[in-house]
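Comment thread on ticket #2218

A.B. wrote:
> Attaching the input chain for the structure job we discussed in standup.
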Amino acid sequence: MRICVVGAGYVGLATGVMFGKLGHEVVCSDVDSRRVRLVNSGKLPFFEPPLEKELKKLVTGGRLRATDDDTRAAGDADFIFICVQTPSLPSGRIDIGPVKVASRSVGKALRGSNGYKVVVMKSTVVPSTTDSVVKPILEKTSGRKSSKDFGLCMNPEFLQEGSALKDSMEPSRIVIGSEDAKAGARLMALYKDIAAPRLMTDLRSAEMIKYASNVFLATKISYANEVANMCVRLGIDSGPVLRAAGMDPRIGSLFLKPGLGFGGSCLPKDVKALKDKARRVGYDSHLLKSILRINERQPVEGIMLLERELGDLRGKKVAVLGLSFKGGVDDIRETRAFPLVTELLARGASVVAFDPMAMEGFIKVMPSIHYSSSASDCLAGADGCIIQADWAEFKRLGKKEFSRMRNAVVVDGRRCLDPDKVRRAGAKYLGIGYPRVEG
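C.D. wrote:
> Ran it. Output below, let me know if you need it in another format.
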């Protein structure tokens, strides 16, 4: 099959590489000419080595290419996947401007081509967007009728940054929403070589499934943080408590880990967007409000641990290790490093930071703090350290690095270090939900 993917971002390229590996001919279109050049050279515009390796193979083999001509790419395709970003507006509502632009380009392609095509919304949009926004644009621009002249489906993605290729090839489920059986059946057949549970539904249900999934994950993280915050005040280590809770099959252990809060391109945005959508249809969600409040407050828990040991932070040098929203990625969207650093500065601390991959992006938005070229240099002369992202190299820090600190106090904001190893290396370990502070 010939597949066009509109939007060469994270979801778009993961989708394109997946279908390329399944043997289809893929064209990824994007308005960003730099991104197009990168893809055509076999490189990703973001950091994800396993995905880039497969992309390079597909580009070299002539099975995947990129273009900045949306209309032509879509006109030559059998399936057209809309995978553009839907960023948050200040109100929490998603910006569907990119979706509208992509829909108009696809509509023009439908007008100028022959044959039945299936248009697939893969961008995350709130329920009713596909049928009340995308469909009218496609029909008006193309002069054709949905469910008759072309098919329209909603096919949400369930990817985690850092494991996009694996999540694409081995998905937990395949969800397809459609307004007619023909389009849904054709799209489901495109996934015939992917082994996963399958669910066919209507357009709005498919849109809501994505939000219901991500909001539950955000809820689970926030619950773990609430338990951890209570445990530390009760003199209890939250680790065994949450591990035992996760053994209950009704709960499960995934995402049941305390930290400085969740970030990234999906969870914060999706919670805000669903809260806004619920409000607009007359429902005030106290749960969604609470999730966001807990997440905004959580970075302060790490700072409080540091203050408990060091006292007033005015004039103290604090090293922040990890600026991406999690280890293994270079994405700084909604990273908890922003509120963490901002609050440290507000309390009078001097901040020095390091991240293996996210420094360039973070410096652009927060140029006023100091940066180091390595974790070891970042720790030099510091009164304390906060681990903000769980990069593998931070787990290898030892006596050599900690001995460079003025006060070897380590706040493990992601519960990713071995407390005993840290103590053997001569540092004091303080972890989220971990009250024991002996050296």
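A.B. wrote:
> Thanks. Noting for the ticket: Residues 46 and 302 are 29 Å apart (CA to CA).
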